[in-house]
Amino acid sequence: MKNNIQRFGKFLSAMVMPNIGALIAFGFLAALFIDTGWIPNKGFNSMVSPMLTYLIPILIASTGGRMIGGDRGRVAGAIAVIGAIMSNTEITMLMAAMVMGPLAGFCVKKFDEAMDGHMPAGFEMLINNFSVGIIGMVLAMLGYVAIGPFMSAILMILSAGVNFLVEHSVLPLVSVFVEPAKVLFLNNALNHGIFTPIATEQAAEAGKSIMYMLETNPGPGLGVLLAYMFFCKDKVTKDSAPGAVIIHLLGGIHEIYFPYILMNPVVIVAPILGNMAAILWYTITDCGLVGPASPGSIIAYLMVSPGSDLVKVLIGVVIAAGISFVVASPIVKMAGGRSLEEAQNEMASMKQAAKGETTVPGTIERSEEVKKIIFACDAGMGSSAMGATKFRNRIKNDRPDITVSNTSVDTIPADCDIAVVQTTLAARAKKAAPQAQLITIGNFLADPALDALYVQLTTGDAPAAPAGENTDIVIPDTPIKKQVIVADGIRLGQKPVTKEEAIQAAGELLVKLGYVDESYVEAMQERERLVSTYMGMGVAIPHGTTQAKGTVKKTGIVFLQYPEGVDFGAEKAQLVFGIAGIGDEHLDLLGKLCTLLEDPALLETLKTTDDVDWVLEQLS
């Protein structure tokens, strides 16, 4: 249950957070230029309503569509949400956007799956464009007649509930749920799924909303840190607290105080009571923010405060910090508790679980529920394609229910369960697919982490040692769908050169054969500087960056053999495959290559043969 909530929250967060700047822009415009703002201006005020009614829902829906259906899902999501918006322009359709975007992306994805292998040659662009338009149009109509009104009704019910809590002065009780949820990393679902849509609607009507204040007040955490700073008996913990105060209060990084609560869980009472008192104060004084305070620092908190409420907002922060400090101090004084290091390790584990990240064999949870594995590299062209093919062949007999495919690291789909990336791309993978478990590796062909993953997915257990037994691989005898390698693209018995010279030679051969423009060669060098294209087992597959795909004229692969090897870092590559691909036309050859590499004797022959025709036969 906890993991499901975390994943749902991360999914919502992945839709909202990339667009938080638009919400902040709306907040600043409202704070400054509405009739009750700091410097009222009728002209600038005219931008506030369209931004809230149209821009923000469209941005969120398009982001949600891209997460599921890629770029075409993004377009369909933007079209679809228009119907929901126009069903009731008096209500901000953030909740509808969070439904319409992913729904549109899902429909585009399913359409693409249905058309896979059935797309008439030469009609790809026509069908792709028309399908997005038709899917978007149908969903926009559905949004207008059904989803928009349904979400309006839900938002009205939630708003009525909030009004009831405010009128009866019981809204402060939500802090009983909010503060523990923050420490357990469950707050994303609560904040982005409920608080933000209600707050945005209230801000549109009243110019401000107390809902923006329920989770972002820096006061409760500040009180806890001050208690540790003055009264903690452990010197290491006490000395660390002042720095944590600065990071929390000015930087808005609330996670900094979570370990101090995990050291002694009873301390959670302090921020609960502190936040409760602050919310009560804000309720009594009719206080609110005009936009989200992100991050939750005192600076951001005050910057989105209405001019008339600035002092009241600051008093609320002081109240929260004061009560939290008073409650936490005696608990900190009396408690022995665990060390800060232990608590930080526990928090790191909790946060890692919330993000679905793992780099350690044995930490894949519920392996039987894994259905989709994505191998991702920078361009999604070469290394990830080979890695996916090799792992798919390895696991298909044991787990036919698992789909293994590849993509660019920036377009990992939202339904990905496990993402496999090279270490240098881990940060981009987390950003692209926060819901997925992350496996970082050194190379895609031979890495102990892949052996560990295989064992866990097939047995459910962590391996005691790297797995050595691969599933038998059958080399397909079907021909490659499209000839992407020719005899003129094969160079055998090359003299030893540097890595840069080998990549340059491969690129120039691609240019000579008419596969790419000359600028693609530099993109290959740039790609190598970003992350190594060495795959392992003596194989390297240099190719261009994602941005260079527009310079590819047609799909082609060249093969350069260096019997004495080319240094790729600490490894030597005897086989260098230069790749230029349009769509998936090159994947058949890469799949064929992966199966060939399973035969050690054949691999060694490829490294030393002087027979071009034999090489061409093996790769065709």
Which stretches of 5+ consecutive residues score pLDDT under 50?
355-363, 462-481
Give the biggest sheet: 5 strands, mixed
In which range does the helix fraction lie? 55-70%
Given the C-alpha coordinates, what overall shape results?
Answer: globular
How many DSSP E strands? 9
Rg over alpha carbons: 28 Å
Counting structural domains, the number is 3
Number of helices: 23
Structural class: alpha/beta
Strand order in the largest sheet: 5-8-9-7-6
C-alpha end-to-end distance: 50 Å
Strand content: 5-15%
Give the mean pLDDT: 80
Organism: Sellimonas catena
Domain PTS EIIA type-2: 483-620
Subcellular location: Cell inner membrane
Domain PTS EIIB type-2: 371-462
Describe the structure.
The protein has 620 residues and is α/β, with parallel strands linked by helices. It folds into 3 domains: 1-14 and 171-354, no CATH class; 356-459, Response regulator (Rossmann fold, 3-Layer(aba) Sandwich), CATH 3.40.50.2300; 487-619, Mannitol-specific EII, Chain A. 57% of the residues lie in helices and 8% in strands. The chain is built from 23 helices and 9 strands. It has helices spanning 2-16, 20-33, 42-45, 48-87, 94-115, 124-167, 175-183, 187-206, 219-231, 235-251, 258-262, 269-284, 298-303, 310-334, 340-355, 383-395, 426-432, 448-459, 499-512, 519-530, 587-597, 600-608, 612-619, and strands at residues 372-377, 403-408, 418-422, 437-441, 490-491, 534-536, 539-540, 556-568, 571-580. The strands form 2 sheets. It has a 5-stranded mixed sheet with strand order 5-8-9-7-6. Helix 4 packs across helix 5 (94-115), helix 4 packs across helix 6 (124-167) and helix 5 (94-115) runs antiparallel to helix 6 (124-167). Mean pLDDT is 80; it is low at 355-363 and 462-481.
